[in-house]
Specification:
The protein is mostly helical. Helices cover about 40% and strands about 0% of the residues. It has a single domain, classed as Glycosyltransferase. The relative contact order is 0.23. InterPro entries: Terpenoid_cyclase/PrenylTrfase (IPR008930).
Protein backbone atom coordinates (compact mmCIF):
# COMPACT_ATOMS: atom_id res chain seq x y z
CA UNK A 1 0.00 0.00 0.00
CA UNK A 2 1.16 2.04 -1.06
CA UNK A 3 1.06 3.41 -0.69
CA UNK A 4 1.31 3.61 -0.18
CA UNK A 5 3.37 4.77 2.09
CA UNK A 6 3.71 6.18 4.97
CA UNK A 7 2.94 9.67 6.27
CA UNK A 8 5.67 12.05 5.65
CA UNK A 9 6.83 13.42 8.84
CA UNK A 10 10.46 12.96 8.71
CA UNK A 11 12.81 15.63 9.40
CA UNK A 12 14.85 18.11 7.74
CA UNK A 13 17.12 18.01 10.71
CA UNK A 14 18.62 14.62 9.97
CA UNK A 15 18.63 14.24 6.24
CA UNK A 16 17.40 17.53 4.96
CA UNK A 17 14.58 15.37 3.64
CA UNK A 18 11.53 13.97 5.24
CA UNK A 19 9.71 10.74 5.56
CA UNK A 20 6.02 10.30 6.07
CA UNK A 21 6.12 9.23 9.60
CA UNK A 22 7.91 11.60 11.88
CA UNK A 23 10.17 14.57 12.05
CA UNK A 24 13.38 12.89 12.99
CA UNK A 25 14.86 15.85 14.76
CA UNK A 26 11.81 16.38 16.94
CA UNK A 27 11.94 16.21 20.73
CA UNK A 28 10.44 13.35 22.65
CA UNK A 29 6.66 13.35 22.46
CA UNK A 30 5.00 15.01 25.41
CA UNK A 31 1.67 14.25 26.98
CA UNK A 32 -1.10 14.58 24.42
CA UNK A 33 -2.84 17.95 24.47
CA UNK A 34 -6.61 18.20 24.50
CA UNK A 35 -7.57 16.75 21.16
CA UNK A 36 -9.97 18.61 18.87
CA UNK A 37 -13.45 17.34 18.15
CA UNK A 38 -13.64 15.11 15.13
CA UNK A 39 -10.07 13.81 15.25
CA UNK A 40 -9.48 10.06 15.13
CA UNK A 41 -7.15 8.48 17.67
CA UNK A 42 -6.03 9.56 21.10
CA UNK A 43 -2.31 10.06 20.61
CA UNK A 44 -0.57 13.33 19.95
CA UNK A 45 -1.45 14.27 16.36
CA UNK A 46 1.59 16.52 15.89
CA UNK A 47 3.27 14.07 13.55
CA UNK A 48 0.44 12.25 11.79
CA UNK A 49 -2.90 13.94 12.43
CA UNK A 50 -3.90 14.55 8.80
CA UNK A 51 -2.45 11.24 7.67
CA UNK A 52 -4.36 9.09 10.15
CA UNK A 53 -7.54 11.12 9.71
CA UNK A 54 -7.38 10.73 5.94
CA UNK A 55 -6.87 6.98 6.11
CA UNK A 56 -9.63 6.51 8.65
CA UNK A 57 -12.15 8.47 6.58
CA UNK A 58 -11.08 6.67 3.41
CA UNK A 59 -11.41 3.25 4.94
CA UNK A 60 -14.84 4.03 6.38
CA UNK A 61 -16.09 5.37 3.07
CA UNK A 62 -14.70 2.40 1.18
CA UNK A 63 -16.72 -0.10 3.19
CA UNK A 64 -19.94 1.88 3.17
CA UNK A 65 -19.67 3.83 6.42
CA UNK A 66 -20.60 7.52 6.24
CA UNK A 67 -18.05 9.35 8.40
CA UNK A 68 -19.08 11.86 11.04
CA UNK A 69 -19.41 15.39 9.70
CA UNK A 70 -17.07 16.61 12.44
CA UNK A 71 -14.35 14.24 11.26
CA UNK A 72 -14.59 15.42 7.67
CA UNK A 73 -14.73 19.06 8.75
CA UNK A 74 -11.61 18.64 10.87
CA UNK A 75 -9.65 17.28 7.92
CA UNK A 76 -10.86 19.94 5.49
CA UNK A 77 -10.07 22.65 8.03
CA UNK A 78 -6.42 21.61 8.22
CA UNK A 79 -5.64 22.86 4.71
CA UNK A 80 -3.38 25.89 4.29
CA UNK A 81 -4.47 28.75 2.04
CA UNK A 82 -1.97 27.66 -0.63
CA UNK A 83 -3.55 24.18 -0.78
CA UNK A 84 -0.96 22.26 1.22
CA UNK A 85 -1.52 20.21 4.36
CA UNK A 86 0.83 19.77 7.27
CA UNK A 87 0.54 17.03 9.88
CA UNK A 88 -1.42 19.05 12.43
CA UNK A 89 -2.56 22.61 12.96
CA UNK A 90 -3.77 23.13 16.50
CA UNK A 91 -5.47 26.38 15.51
CA UNK A 92 -6.83 26.15 11.96
CA UNK A 93 -7.92 29.79 12.19
CA UNK A 94 -4.28 30.84 12.34
CA UNK A 95 -2.89 30.98 8.81
CA UNK A 96 0.06 28.91 7.64
CA UNK A 97 3.32 30.84 7.37
CA UNK A 98 6.83 30.14 6.16
CA UNK A 99 7.55 28.09 9.28
CA UNK A 100 4.66 25.72 8.63
CA UNK A 101 6.15 22.38 7.54
CA UNK A 102 4.03 21.55 4.52
CA UNK A 103 4.08 17.86 3.69
CA UNK A 104 3.39 16.13 0.37
CA UNK A 105 2.43 12.85 2.05
CA UNK A 106 -0.13 14.43 4.34
CA UNK A 107 -1.40 16.46 1.38
CA UNK A 108 -1.57 13.40 -0.88
CA UNK A 109 -3.48 11.42 1.73
CA UNK A 110 -5.93 14.28 2.32
CA UNK A 111 -6.55 14.59 -1.43
CA UNK A 112 -7.38 10.91 -1.69
CA UNK A 113 -9.81 11.12 1.24
CA UNK A 114 -11.55 14.34 0.25
CA UNK A 115 -11.84 13.27 -3.39
CA UNK A 116 -13.46 10.00 -2.36
CA UNK A 117 -15.90 11.65 0.04
CA UNK A 118 -17.01 14.18 -2.54
CA UNK A 119 -18.15 17.75 -2.08
CA UNK A 120 -14.62 19.12 -1.72
CA UNK A 121 -13.63 19.79 -5.31
CA UNK A 122 -12.17 23.22 -4.64
CA UNK A 123 -10.01 21.96 -1.77
CA UNK A 124 -8.85 18.96 -3.82
CA UNK A 125 -7.92 21.07 -6.82
CA UNK A 126 -6.08 23.59 -4.66
CA UNK A 127 -4.10 20.77 -3.03
CA UNK A 128 -3.28 19.25 -6.42
CA UNK A 129 -2.10 22.66 -7.59
CA UNK A 130 0.23 22.90 -4.62
CA UNK A 131 1.59 19.39 -5.23
CA UNK A 132 2.33 20.31 -8.83
CA UNK A 133 4.12 23.46 -7.69
CA UNK A 134 6.57 21.50 -5.54
CA UNK A 135 7.28 18.70 -8.03
CA UNK A 136 11.01 18.10 -8.44
CA UNK A 137 12.79 18.38 -11.78
CA UNK A 138 13.17 14.60 -11.95
CA UNK A 139 9.36 14.33 -11.94
CA UNK A 140 9.07 13.07 -8.36
CA UNK A 141 8.42 14.39 -4.88
CA UNK A 142 10.00 14.33 -1.47
CA UNK A 143 8.01 14.46 1.73
CA UNK A 144 9.24 17.96 2.41
CA UNK A 145 9.41 20.26 -0.62
CA UNK A 146 12.93 21.10 -1.73
CA UNK A 147 14.45 17.76 -0.75
CA UNK A 148 15.42 14.95 -3.16
CA UNK A 149 12.60 12.78 -4.45
CA UNK A 150 11.86 9.45 -2.79
CA UNK A 151 9.87 6.43 -3.94
CA UNK A 152 7.28 6.57 -1.15
CA UNK A 153 6.34 10.23 -1.50
CA UNK A 154 6.26 10.02 -5.28
CA UNK A 155 3.90 7.04 -5.06
CA UNK A 156 1.57 8.77 -2.58
CA UNK A 157 1.33 11.79 -4.87
CA UNK A 158 0.66 9.60 -7.91
CA UNK A 159 -2.27 8.10 -6.01
CA UNK A 160 -3.51 11.58 -5.11
CA UNK A 161 -3.31 12.80 -8.71
CA UNK A 162 -5.24 9.76 -9.92
CA UNK A 163 -7.88 10.22 -7.21
CA UNK A 164 -8.32 13.84 -8.28
CA UNK A 165 -8.94 12.84 -11.88
CA UNK A 166 -5.50 13.78 -13.18
CA UNK A 167 -3.36 11.66 -15.47
CA UNK A 168 -0.11 11.29 -13.50
CA UNK A 169 1.94 10.68 -16.64
CA UNK A 170 0.98 14.12 -17.92
CA UNK A 171 2.09 15.95 -14.77
CA UNK A 172 5.66 16.78 -15.71
CA UNK A 173 8.51 18.97 -14.53
CA UNK A 174 11.66 19.47 -16.52
CA UNK A 175 10.30 17.07 -19.11
CA UNK A 176 10.03 14.25 -16.55
CA UNK A 177 6.89 12.55 -15.27
CA UNK A 178 6.31 10.96 -11.84
CA UNK A 179 6.85 7.57 -13.47
CA UNK A 180 10.28 8.63 -14.72
CA UNK A 181 11.25 9.47 -11.15
CA UNK A 182 9.76 6.26 -9.79
CA UNK A 183 11.51 3.93 -12.22
CA UNK A 184 14.85 5.50 -11.29
CA UNK A 185 14.47 3.96 -7.82
CA UNK A 186 14.08 0.37 -9.06
CA UNK A 187 16.98 -2.07 -8.88
CA UNK A 188 17.51 -3.65 -12.27
CA UNK A 189 19.38 -6.48 -13.88
CA UNK A 190 22.70 -5.11 -12.68
CA UNK A 191 21.70 -5.79 -9.07
CA UNK A 192 22.12 -9.05 -7.19
CA UNK A 193 19.67 -11.70 -8.32
CA UNK A 194 17.59 -11.63 -5.13
CA UNK A 195 17.33 -7.84 -5.20
CA UNK A 196 16.18 -7.29 -8.78
CA UNK A 197 12.84 -5.61 -9.12
CA UNK A 198 12.94 -4.11 -5.62
CA UNK A 199 12.73 -0.37 -5.10
CA UNK A 200 14.96 1.79 -2.97
CA UNK A 201 13.56 4.59 -0.86
CA UNK A 202 16.26 6.93 -2.16
CA UNK A 203 19.77 6.46 -3.51
CA UNK A 204 22.40 6.49 -0.79
CA UNK A 205 25.88 7.49 -1.89
CA UNK A 206 24.67 7.02 -5.43
CA UNK A 207 23.60 3.42 -4.83
CA UNK A 208 20.19 1.77 -4.56
CA UNK A 209 19.40 -0.63 -1.73
CA UNK A 210 16.22 -2.75 -1.72
CA UNK A 211 13.57 -1.54 0.68
CA UNK A 212 10.37 -3.54 1.13
CA UNK A 213 8.32 -0.55 2.27
CA UNK A 214 9.35 1.51 -0.76
CA UNK A 215 8.78 -1.52 -3.00
CA UNK A 216 5.19 -1.98 -1.84
CA UNK A 217 4.47 1.73 -2.24
CA UNK A 218 6.10 1.89 -5.67
CA UNK A 219 4.25 -1.21 -6.90
CA UNK A 220 1.02 0.72 -6.32
CA UNK A 221 2.38 3.95 -7.72
CA UNK A 222 3.63 2.29 -10.89
CA UNK A 223 0.08 1.08 -11.54
CA UNK A 224 -1.32 4.56 -10.92
CA UNK A 225 -3.14 3.29 -7.84
CA UNK A 226 -3.86 5.07 -4.59
CA UNK A 227 -4.62 3.70 -1.15
CA UNK A 228 -7.92 2.17 -2.20
CA UNK A 229 -7.66 -0.77 -4.58
CA UNK A 230 -10.71 -2.30 -6.21
CA UNK A 231 -11.21 -5.89 -5.03
CA UNK A 232 -9.32 -8.23 -7.31
CA UNK A 233 -11.19 -11.31 -6.20
CA UNK A 234 -9.69 -14.46 -4.81
CA UNK A 235 -9.91 -16.20 -8.16
CA UNK A 236 -7.92 -13.54 -10.03
CA UNK A 237 -4.36 -14.74 -10.05
CA UNK A 238 -1.95 -13.27 -12.56
CA UNK A 239 1.43 -15.03 -12.39
CA UNK A 240 4.16 -13.09 -10.61
CA UNK A 241 6.89 -12.25 -13.11
CA UNK A 242 10.38 -11.36 -12.01
CA UNK A 243 12.34 -8.74 -13.91
CA UNK A 244 13.43 -10.20 -17.24
CA UNK A 245 17.21 -10.33 -17.14
CA UNK A 246 18.19 -12.82 -19.81
CA UNK A 247 20.58 -12.40 -22.69
CA UNK A 248 22.85 -9.96 -20.93
CA UNK A 249 20.06 -7.49 -20.16
CA UNK A 250 21.00 -4.56 -17.97
CA UNK A 251 19.14 -1.84 -16.16
CA UNK A 252 15.59 -2.01 -14.86
CA UNK A 253 12.09 -1.84 -16.26
CA UNK A 254 11.47 0.82 -18.87
CA UNK A 255 7.71 0.95 -18.36
CA UNK A 256 5.66 1.27 -15.16
CA UNK A 257 3.56 -1.72 -16.15
CA UNK A 258 6.73 -3.81 -16.22
CA UNK A 259 8.07 -2.30 -13.03
CA UNK A 260 5.05 -3.22 -10.90
CA UNK A 261 5.13 -7.01 -11.55
CA UNK A 262 8.87 -7.06 -10.91
CA UNK A 263 8.32 -5.27 -7.60
CA UNK A 264 5.57 -7.75 -6.70
CA UNK A 265 7.90 -10.64 -7.50
CA UNK A 266 10.45 -9.25 -5.07
CA UNK A 267 7.78 -8.90 -2.37
CA UNK A 268 6.56 -12.46 -2.91
CA UNK A 269 10.10 -13.80 -2.58
CA UNK A 270 10.57 -11.90 0.68
CA UNK A 271 7.23 -13.07 2.05
CA UNK A 272 7.90 -16.68 1.11
CA UNK A 273 11.30 -16.53 2.77
CA UNK A 274 9.93 -15.15 6.03
CA UNK A 275 6.80 -17.16 6.73
CA UNK A 276 4.43 -14.80 4.84
CA UNK A 277 5.36 -11.62 6.65
CA UNK A 278 7.99 -9.00 5.99
CA UNK A 279 10.70 -8.59 8.60
CA UNK A 280 11.82 -5.40 10.26
CA UNK A 281 15.01 -4.86 12.18
CA UNK A 282 15.97 -1.48 13.55
CA UNK A 283 19.69 -0.91 14.11
CA UNK A 284 20.74 -2.88 17.16
CA UNK A 285 17.36 -4.58 17.53
CA UNK A 286 16.39 -8.17 16.93
CA UNK A 287 14.49 -8.91 13.75
CA UNK A 288 10.73 -9.08 14.15
CA UNK A 289 7.67 -9.10 11.88
CA UNK A 290 6.78 -5.76 10.31
CA UNK A 291 3.00 -5.90 10.28
CA UNK A 292 2.50 -2.55 8.58
CA UNK A 293 4.78 -3.36 5.67
CA UNK A 294 3.12 -6.75 5.32
CA UNK A 295 -0.27 -5.04 5.02
CA UNK A 296 1.14 -2.77 2.32
CA UNK A 297 2.54 -5.76 0.46
CA UNK A 298 -0.87 -7.46 0.47
CA UNK A 299 -2.49 -4.39 -1.07
CA UNK A 300 0.28 -4.13 -3.68
CA UNK A 301 -0.15 -7.78 -4.67
CA UNK A 302 -3.92 -7.40 -4.88
CA UNK A 303 -3.51 -4.35 -7.09
CA UNK A 304 -1.33 -6.42 -9.39
CA UNK A 305 -4.03 -9.12 -9.58
CA UNK A 306 -1.84 -11.65 -7.79
CA UNK A 307 -4.70 -13.21 -5.86
CA UNK A 308 -3.07 -16.35 -4.50
CA UNK A 309 0.11 -14.51 -3.56
CA UNK A 310 -1.92 -11.91 -1.66
CA UNK A 311 -4.01 -14.48 0.19
CA UNK A 312 -1.02 -16.12 1.87
CA UNK A 313 0.20 -13.04 3.81
CA UNK A 314 -3.44 -12.03 4.34
CA UNK A 315 -3.95 -15.25 6.30
CA UNK A 316 -0.88 -14.41 8.36
CA UNK A 317 -2.32 -10.97 9.10
CA UNK A 318 -5.61 -12.45 10.23
CA UNK A 319 -3.71 -14.31 12.93
CA UNK A 320 -1.08 -11.75 13.91
CA UNK A 321 -2.30 -8.19 13.35
CA UNK A 322 -4.75 -7.64 16.21
CA UNK A 323 -2.28 -6.44 18.84
CA UNK A 324 -0.46 -4.24 16.33
CA UNK A 325 -3.68 -2.54 15.27
CA UNK A 326 -4.85 -2.08 18.85
CA UNK A 327 -1.59 -0.41 19.82
CA UNK A 328 -1.21 1.63 16.64
CA UNK A 329 -4.70 3.03 16.36
CA UNK A 330 -6.91 4.29 13.53
CA UNK A 331 -4.34 4.26 10.75
CA UNK A 332 -3.53 0.63 11.38
CA UNK A 333 -7.19 -0.38 11.49
CA UNK A 334 -7.71 1.56 8.28
CA UNK A 335 -4.80 -0.19 6.60
CA UNK A 336 -6.23 -3.57 7.49
CA UNK A 337 -9.72 -2.59 6.34
CA UNK A 338 -8.31 -1.53 2.97
CA UNK A 339 -6.23 -4.70 2.67
CA UNK A 340 -9.32 -6.80 3.34
CA UNK A 341 -11.26 -4.77 0.80
CA UNK A 342 -8.54 -5.17 -1.84
CA UNK A 343 -8.44 -8.92 -1.44
CA UNK A 344 -12.17 -9.56 -1.24
CA UNK A 345 -12.03 -10.48 2.46
CA UNK A 346 -14.61 -9.37 5.02
CA UNK A 347 -13.22 -6.56 7.21
CA UNK A 348 -16.07 -7.14 9.67
CA UNK A 349 -14.88 -10.68 10.28
CA UNK A 350 -11.12 -10.59 9.99
CA UNK A 351 -9.41 -13.24 12.06
CA UNK A 352 -12.28 -13.03 14.50
CA UNK A 353 -12.22 -9.22 14.70
CA UNK A 354 -14.54 -6.55 13.36
CA UNK A 355 -12.05 -4.07 11.92
CA UNK A 356 -14.76 -1.63 10.88
CA UNK A 357 -16.23 -1.42 14.37
CA UNK A 358 -12.76 -1.05 15.86
CA UNK A 359 -11.93 1.77 13.44
CA UNK A 360 -15.23 3.53 14.09
CA UNK A 361 -14.55 3.41 17.83
CA UNK A 362 -11.36 5.47 17.44
CA UNK A 363 -13.23 8.60 16.37
CA UNK A 364 -16.57 10.36 16.34
CA UNK A 365 -19.63 8.20 15.82
CA UNK A 366 -20.27 7.68 12.09
CA UNK A 367 -23.17 9.50 10.51
CA UNK A 368 -24.55 6.32 9.01
CA UNK A 369 -24.15 4.15 5.95
CA UNK A 370 -23.00 5.26 2.52
CA UNK A 371 -22.52 3.67 -0.84
CA UNK A 372 -19.00 2.19 -0.98
CA UNK A 373 -16.59 4.03 -3.24
CA UNK A 374 -13.08 3.40 -4.52
CA UNK A 375 -10.77 6.00 -3.09
CA UNK A 376 -9.71 5.62 0.59
CA UNK A 377 -6.63 4.50 2.44
CA UNK A 378 -4.97 3.93 5.75
CA UNK A 379 -3.53 5.69 8.64
CA UNK A 380 -1.34 5.07 11.53
CA UNK A 381 -1.69 6.38 14.98
CA UNK A 382 1.36 8.09 16.40
CA UNK A 383 3.19 7.14 13.31
CA UNK A 384 2.17 6.28 9.95
CA UNK A 385 4.62 3.58 9.70
CA UNK A 386 2.59 0.65 10.59
CA UNK A 387 2.69 1.21 14.30
CA UNK A 388 6.37 2.06 14.54
CA UNK A 389 6.86 5.01 16.88
CA UNK A 390 7.93 8.33 15.37
CA UNK A 391 11.31 8.23 17.07
CA UNK A 392 12.08 4.83 15.55
CA UNK A 393 11.35 6.26 12.13
CA UNK A 394 13.74 9.07 12.83
CA UNK A 395 16.46 6.55 13.63
CA UNK A 396 15.71 4.68 10.44
CA UNK A 397 15.97 7.84 8.41
CA UNK A 398 19.31 8.59 9.93
CA UNK A 399 20.51 5.35 8.43
CA UNK A 400 19.08 6.24 5.04
CA UNK A 401 16.21 3.79 5.17
CA UNK A 402 12.84 4.46 3.62
CA UNK A 403 9.52 4.94 5.26
CA UNK A 404 6.26 3.41 5.50
CA UNK A 405 3.56 3.49 2.90
CA UNK A 406 3.34 4.64 3.06
CA UNK A 407 5.48 6.86 4.05
CA UNK A 408 4.04 7.24 4.97
CA UNK A 409 3.37 5.80 5.16
CA UNK A 410 3.40 4.81 4.02
CA UNK A 411 6.30 5.68 6.87
CA UNK A 412 7.85 2.50 8.22
CA UNK A 413 11.30 1.50 7.37
CA UNK A 414 12.39 -1.89 6.27
CA UNK A 415 15.81 -2.08 4.74
CA UNK A 416 16.13 -5.57 3.32
Amino acid sequence: MARRAAPALATAALLGAAAPAAYAGSPSPSASPKLPDGLYGTKDPQYDGVWRQSLALLAQHTVGVRPAASGVAWLAGQQCADGAFTAFRADPHQGCDTKTMRDTNQTGAAVQALAALGGHDAAVQKAVGWLKSVQNKDGGWSAMPGSPSDANSTSVVIGALAAAGEKPASVTKGGHSPYDALLAFQLGCDAKEGERGAFAYQPKDGKLAPNADATAAAALGALGEGFVVAPAGKDVDEPVKALGCTGGASGGAHDPRQAAPAADAYLVAQLDANGQHLPSAMPGAAQQPDVGNTVDAVVALAAGSHGAAAQRPLKWLEKHSADWARQSGPAAYAQLVLAAHATGADPRSFGGHDLVAALNATGPEPAGSAAPSAGPEKDAEDNDNGGIPWWVIGVGLAFGAGIGFLISGRKKKNQL
